[in-house]
Amino acid sequence: MDKLNLTMLTDFYELTMANGYLQNGMKDKIAYFDMFFRKVPDNGGFAIMAGVEQLIQYLQDLKFDDQDIKYLRSKGLFSEEFLHYLKNFKFSCDVWAIPEGTVIFPNEPILIVRGPVIEAQFIETMVLLTINHQSLIATKANRIVRAAQGRAVMEFGSRRAHSYDAAIYGARAAYIGGCVGTSCTITEEEFAVPALGTMAHSWVQMFPNELDAFRAYARTYPADCTFLVDTYNVLKSGIPNAIKAFNEEVVPRGFRPRGVRIDSGDITYLSQESRKMLDEAGFADCKIVASNSLDEFIIKDILIQGAQVDLFGVGERLITSKSDSVFGGVYKLAAIEENGEIIPKMKLSENVEKITNPGFKEVWRFFDKGSSKAIADVLTEKNEIIDENMPYEFFDPRDTWKKKAVSNFRAKRLLTMIFDKGVCVYEIPKLADIKCYCKDQVDTLWDEVKRFDNPHIYYVDLSKSLWEMKDRLIKSIL
Question: Which of 188, 364, 409, 411 is most enclosed, with most CB atoms within 10 A?
Fold first, then answer.
């Protein structure tokens, strides 16, 4: 099958504005756009950056084919000069992004695009679509993995995803967030995310009885045998039949059973009773897997109640981030260039939270040298340098009287150059390495930031120079 050309996956106004820019002599005007988000899903303390690899692929493949040009000509809105421009289109922007797996916070640029305004504006939809979706799912997955308190979590949501792309890339993002694998087979083929799964209720129903179904499966997969035990009755038939099949078909072949899965009912009670029965039968090493519309809140509660679960399979509430299904990233103009000079731009609003931060910026993360924990993030002008040998004073951008001086810190730039004049200069890490990096990044946060309920607010401040620029700009506009 030919690869789908996604160039035209854009909001129509990107095209009408592009034509307008060309007609008004602004084709080569340099613009700077920031992508950022305003709120962490589920009122959490942080989010996870994901989707950069797919954005890179999109930007490398940007081209308008003859069918696209024909369609746009049929609209009767676009000049022939503009259609000729699109026919010879070549992406030439600079792009910086925070690497996948990094913890990110509201109101800081997680991606910056600099280049001719037609190009920089045109890619808005796919920038947001790609980063918003995978960051949302990676963030949700990480919450669920943390709720599981060291127990493995498998992503089981393909059939509930909002499209096949959402299933594939959602599974990828869930792996970044900490899941051990996915039910989505193609995601292993494409990204080496382990594909996991055993049987459905239909397997059990296809046989004369449950025991025959278990025996047949055990004969087929003796080295990797996990039974779904809730088709009829977990404690009266499921577990007893599983034990019989283990003894008759698995152990005699020199293997040990992998597990049993409970997909309905009171998971806490059923897992506790199942554990007792398995242990008494000599299968203390047999794992108990729980599924059935789980999320971080349910997992947290049943573990507090003493559920004897070793692994969790989480489906629809992960792959759709059901409890808060919009990441809310936005893409806003931050500056333009005039004769080589960067002119800051900003959006004002009666809603204070919608006022943007102007200029070409850098994002710095401060780490305490003693604990290696993250202290705060600071937005600066791009050319600012932070001297680690001198104390640094944070101040709240709104309540400027709130100040805190820190020393003995390490400051790290977060934005990495991805494209230089349209050429990818970034080496994409292996997905398994991104997953490990994500875990390490989350470990840099204090537990207070990682709380599910009322997490500590991690501060994203402005440097004095950037704050003064913003203040001058607001006063000049008003």
Answer: 364
Residues 314 and 392 both lie in one domain: no
3-state secondary structure 63-100: CCCHHHHHHHHHCCCCCHHHHHHHHCCCCCCEEEECCC
Task: Answer for the pair 174, 319: CB distance below 8 angstroms, yes or no.
Answer: yes
Within the chain, what is the greatest distance between any pair of CA atoms?
A: 82
Q: The domain that contains 206 carries what CATH number?
A: 3.20.20.70
Interval 276-297: pLDDT, tens? 999 999 999 999 999 999 999 9
Residues pairing with 95 in the sheet:
113, 419
| Domain annotation covers residue 424 | yes
- Looking at the 3D structure of the chain, how many domains does it have? 2
| The pair of three-digit structure tokens given for residue 11, joined into one six-digit string | 């909001």
Number of residues in the chain: 478
Q: Are residues 217 and 155 in the same domain?
A: yes
Indicate the pLDDT class of residue 350, thresholds 50, 70 and 90.
confident
Residues 119 and 56 in one domain: yes
Give the CB-side neighbour count of residue 99, counting CA atoms within 13 A: 19
**Per the domain annotation, does 6 fall within a domain?**
no
Q: Can you tell me the distance from the alpha carbon of 222 to that of 218, in angstroms, rounded to the nearest whole number?
A: 5
Same domain, yes or no: 97 and 131? yes
Query: Quick one: 356 and 456 in the same domain?
Result: yes
Q: How far apart are CA 370 and CA 462, in angstroms?
A: 24
CA distance 465 to 190: 45
Q: Against a cut of 0.85, is the pTM above it? A: yes
Q: Is 428 helix (H, G, I), strand (E, B) or coil?
A: coil
Of 255, 287, 319, the residue at which a domain comes to its end is: 319
